[in-house]
Amino acid sequence: QSALTQPASVSGSPGQSITISCTGTSSDVGSYNLVSWYQQHPGKAPKLMIYEVTKRPSGVSNRFSGSKSGNTASLTISGLQAEDEADYYCYSYALSSTVLFGGGTKLTVL
Amino acid sequence: QVQLVQSGAEVKEPGASVKVSCKASGYTFTNYVLHWVRQAPGQRLEWMGWLNTDNGNTKYSQKFQGRVTMTRDTSASTAYMELSSLRSEDTAVFYCAREVGATLAFDYWGQGTLVTVSS
Predict the structure, then answer these.
(1) How many CB atoms lie within 10 A of CB B82?
(2) In degrees to the nearest 10, what's the CA dihedral of B107, B108, B112, B113?
(3) Among A20, A98, A99, the residue to mutate for chain B (most B Cβ within 10 A)
(4) Region label for A52, one of left (φ > 0), alpha (ψ between -120 and 50) or beta (otherwise)
(5) Averaged in consecutive runs of 10 residues, what is the pLDDT profile of chain B (119 residues)?
(6) Cβ-defined contact of A51 to B109 (cutoff 8 Å)
(7) Of A1, A34, A101, the CB nearest to B45
(8) Residue A59's CB: how many other CB atoms inside 10 A?
(9) Cβ contacts of A46 on chain B, cutoff 8 Å
């Protein structure tokens, strides 16, 4: 099972918006609306930011939003803040009741 | 409040097995599926499998099939993940995580357990 494809790194200045892509196949991202996004700061456990493609858990800033088109899901962070600097992972349900994580994207706030 | 508290760090020799525990509190243990996720140093998250804490059913990633066993003790609200035939590449932090409903989203995570495989 291959990992979902994410850019290794993205960067943006405070106040800007960035988008992180997550590309899978028709067997995972393309077929199911079970895509989640996680934020991970160094040495910490991941934190759920988006689930079921577009839903935001309570307590997560509305600066974070998710979308999907075909086999690619996206996480957009608007109004970048210094504390957004972290690693971000996408995750999708796949055939045969398995799960795939993306390779991770390091977000740098310049 | 919901908490998942994992057992402490382990050092194992190659070929040995390790059993990591994940004790749940603050909710009804058997109402939620638990997943296990591995993260080698500096590497991505890797899904290992899930455990239905109610009936004990499991589903393992093909990568770990045959080496991993996930079990639970409902009386202790504790889940376990045992990984056998350890090799140096298994050195990693192992997390347990609770799934929200049937969304395959993980809303609560354990603090992680570092397993070091070294001779």
Answers:
(1) 14
(2) -120
(3) A99
(4) left
(5) 97 97 97 96 93 96 94 98 97 97 91 97
(6) no
(7) A101
(8) 7
(9) 37, 45, 95, 97, 106, 109
